[in-house]
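Q: Hi! First time doing this. I have a protein sequence and I read that you can turn it into a structure. Is that right? Here it is:
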Amino acid sequence: MTDDTREFHFFFGLRVQNEPFHILHYLCLESCRQVNRPHKIHLHLRHRPYGIWWDRIVPHLQIHIVEDAPLAFDTAKYADSAEGRNIAASGFSYAHEADFLRLQILLKHGGVYADMDTLFVRPYPDRFYAHEFLIGEEAAIVGNNGVLRPSLCNAVIFSRPQARFAREWLRRMGEVFDGTWNRHSCDEAARVWSDEPLSATVAPTAAFYPFAATPIGIASLFVQNATLPRGVYSMHLWAHLWWQEKRIDFTLFHAGLLTDDYVRTADTTYAKLARRFLDDSFDDAS
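A: Yes, that's right. Below is the predicted 3D structure, encoded as structure tokens:
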């Protein structure tokens, strides 16, 4: 990847925005801006956000309107399983649409993709940008046979235009998408890596995913003040597991508790790392 492609891509607002832009999403973009100092930050959206945090960050963004859904994204597949039906009923299909769109954008333009529930901690090193395709390994998951198997999380991706891994992954995603959460995304990425190991560089788990998508991991982020492992550059926050107040299977923490005051004062891993990206003169936010 040349220096000219040190541009970051994010997706947001693929569904109608009924609530103001959240401080967590502001801190994602602002931490990216301050920590990595990219040439451009591209935000791809369908429905424009609003609110004080949006007004604060939008001058630093390049806005792109997403019009059509990707052709390979077949929403009829949600009816084929209980998991798929639950995803559709919960309104999470936008996340799957973004799975396809991020690879399309990276294949065309190159750059770095990151999910909006990311906090950037340390600048990504030059060596990450030098690879044709780089993705991070997350904690292994249990397969249908009860055996742990590797998983490559698509929440952070470095790619050159027309990268071989991205082309093959996107092609196969359309074939295997079945409406479940990650069969087409993290699961299929690991399968592509197994088949074509030289087409991608895989960063260690600590680089992007130092805290796992588990109750202990979520507590380490938002309830406790945990020690960061060595080699952390950004933290994925697994927001879909705790965002809604009614979801309590992972944690009692929820988006309504993540306020300006929480970020400024809480003695937790996330708050202590995120508060440096807030301007102390901006005290009227909530």
